[in-house]
Write a structure and sequence with these properties.
176 residues; Tetrahydropterin Synthase, Chain A; 3 helices
């Protein structure tokens, strides 16, 4: 019999307050707004020689490092076909049709995603976390899940099976 275990972490310190907007239906774009996001992470697999799947403290620390990078920033998708993002050392210029915003560069996180939806933010966090766990702990879970709660009762979850999905290649970190 093959046993499987899950470790899940979510804490009040795995939160990030960020601004964003999304485009949808190809012809619409939300107003700038923000959320107090909350992240939860789950890893799944067999126990190791120490009889645990993975260290809770290390998992929380790695996740917190990633969410801290997003905290109190404007999240901008760099792969959106409808939104133009041009960054210099000093500022980021964002355009959607006739609308334009200019942000200080230090206030922005440029994400290599198609839209700043909760689903794709969860994927971004998961891929970053997978790279960090692999690099710093030589740990690759059988299953990795990241949930991003946008509002109470509204969340999106990204799940991957790194050994099956090709996510173990060097360029899969999702870093911009």
């Amino acid at each position: 019999m093959s046993e499987r275990y899950k470790v899940r972490v979510t804490k009040d310190h795995l939160v990030f307050c960020s601004g964003h907007f999304i485009s949808y239906e190809g012809s619409k774009c939300e107003r700038l707004h923000g959320h107090n996001y909350r992240a939860a992470v789950e890893v799944e697999g067999p126990l190791d020689e120490n009889y645990y799947l993975f260290d809770f403290i290390a998992l929380k620390a790695r996740t917190k490092a990633i969410t801290d990078e997003l905290d109190h920033h404007m999240l901008l998708a760099t792969r959106n076909a409808h939104i133009s993002v041009e960054a210099s050392e000093q500022r980021v210029r964002v355009r959607y049709r006739e609308r334009e915003w200019i942000f200080p560069r230090e206030d922005c996180v440029l994400l290599p995603i198609e839209n700043t939806t909760a689903e794709l933010i969860a994927r971004y966090i998961a891929r970053r976390l997978l790279a960090d766990l692999r690099q710093h702990h030589r740990f690759v879970p059988e299953v990795l899940r990241v949930e991003v709660e946008e509002n109470v009762g509204q969340s999106a979850t990204y799940e991957c099976r790194p050994h099956e999905s090709g996510l173990l290649s060097a360029d899969s970190t999702g870093r911009a």
